[in-house]
Amino acid sequence: MMNLTRRRFLLASASAAVVSPVALGALSIPGGASSQSPSFPGLQAAGNCAGQPFPAKIYIAAAEPIRVMRGGIGASIHTINTPLPGRRPEGGSWSGSEWGGNPDASDDLHWEELFKHAEWLGMDWCRVELEQRMYEPDRRVFDWDNPEMRVLYRILDWAERRGVDVFLQQMWNDVAWNAYPGNAADPIRRLRSAPYSMTEWAYGLGELLDHLIRVKAYTCIKWVSINNEPGGWWRDSNMKSLPITPALKAAREEFDRRGLAVPISGPDWTDLPDLKPAAVDFDPYVGAYDLHSYGAVFASMKGDGGYTLSEAEQRMSQWAQWAHSKNKPFFLSEFGTMAYGWGHWDAGPACYQSGLKNASLVVRGINAGVDGFNRWSFTNRGDLDGQWQLVRTWDIQQNKLLDSFTPQPNAYYQFAMLSRYLPKHSGVLATRVEAPFLPEDRKLVATALRTPKGNLTVLVVNESDFAVDVNIELDGLAVPARLQRYALTREAEDKCTVELRAERSLEVSKALSDCIPPMSIVVYSTYSLNAQDAGLIAE
């Protein structure tokens, strides 16, 4: 008797019957998450894949969005050029990779080059990062005009000009004058110290916001986060982590005292923990929730540490539902991948598999209710705790700024597939995927969005080693749409230059059939962007 595996059985039964979306239940599943199911409806293969593709269906309720994202997608832009405590012997860095790799404030040509990259990528929701040392080096002694503050102004000027929403992040304090006893003299302990006087710390943060919002008149600052990953960078004299709630309360009260309405986001925890409502004792002080994710892995890697993408999707959905029930957004304010290596100059964070996983995380996150995504990071030295950069600015061998800035292979273009066709504040359409992948398999995931002006973008990520013949049904599409098809496949792996242009144009009224190549990102959009065109930031 032939050995009929479960997967072969699912494939064999895929053509048995065609079931309508109604028979499969509502498209808007809990959390909006895409799903894989062995009882998916059959479809006629498009016939344009080599070998035997897997069949799949994607259902999109195209009539009305189920929610509107209150952010968008971008990447971290830091302002710190002063060297911080560096590499650890085991591969990490005492300060992460939060410093260096940027041009000087006076370097007009290089900043113009950087901003062109940001605009090509369509970065519309960016975490802009600083430390208290930059503006308050001593108690109530404020310095608004130094090289690092001028870098901050350059970035905020660009964001203001281009309509980019800024998530302003104070990474840490790093000041001797307000460190816990015993922490001031040691640069590592000082960097990780919580403020000894919460009142003085909050006053300084209030002065910064007053200066940026009232004196400099920036309107692009939409949220403020008071400290990065407080479990690691909010410690007492014994290097014991302290709760962040008293600081959130102090900051909110100081902002209110000054009449500053900018909302605080928190808790900025890593690594995408499960929601435990009893631990959330800070809701009165925050206007948004945010977390970080680095440990998510493909289902096929379960057991190697971390948590699967499906588990990540469930956690994001829990947090999003919690935040939305209080009319507050939920952001993934840092995301990246450590599963393929990191530390010192390791290129693992920028490899093709890392970028593919990141893409799946974002697609799943959109379906799960996430309002904004921030990739770590736009620029990065690449020799502190791994090559996290989207744009290469630093010569690792010569330890100096590069003469010209170029895309980081894989990372830059995979990120672009998510960001170029998705302006901020787009509406999310209920989307369901039906495909014969098992729980332990890499999956096919998809999401769909309608922009504020009615443009349509569908993002499809095939994590798997298999081509997938897919039928995409757009239920409730008011008028036929002409969709441009953009694709990034493993043929682009490690290439320094990739032309992202529409491969073909499709007239769609109710459905389209296509082949999604293995380990690829495919975008269908009513936007027609040439390879040199800037990405979409706002409509």
Comma- or semicolon-separated keywords:
alpha/beta; 24 strands; 9 helices; seven-stranded antiparallel beta sheet
Please, could you describe this protein's structure?
The protein is 22% helix and 23% strand. It has helices spanning 6-13, 108-121, 147-162, 187-192, 198-215, 245-258, 309-325, 352-368, 411-419; strands spanning 54-61, 67-68, 73-75, 77-78, 125-130, 165-170, 221-225, 265-269, 288-293, 296-297, 307-308, 330-335, 372-375, 391-395, 400-407, 427-429, 431-434, 444-450, 456-462, 468-475, 481-488, 504-508, 511-516, 520-525. The strands form 6 sheets. The chain has a 7-stranded antiparallel β-sheet, covered by helices on one side. Strands 3-13-12-9-8 form a 5-stranded parallel β-sheet. Helix 5 (198-215) packs across helix 6, helix 7 (309-325) packs parallel to helix 8 and helix 8 (352-368) runs parallel beside helix 9. The radius of gyration is 23 Å and the shape is globular.
| Main pleated sheet | 7 strands, antiparallel
Give the strand order of the largest sheet, numbering strands 1, 2, ... along the chain. Answer: 2-16-18-19-24-21-22
SS summary, helix count: 9
Strand content: 15-25%
| Average of per-residue pLDDT values | 91
What's the Cα radius of gyration?
A: 23 Å
Number of strands: 24
The helix content is: 10-25%
- Which runs of at least 5 residues are low in confidence (pLDDT < 50)? 1-35, 37-48
N-to-C span = 61 Å
Write down the overall geometry.
globular
Quickly give the structural class: alpha/beta
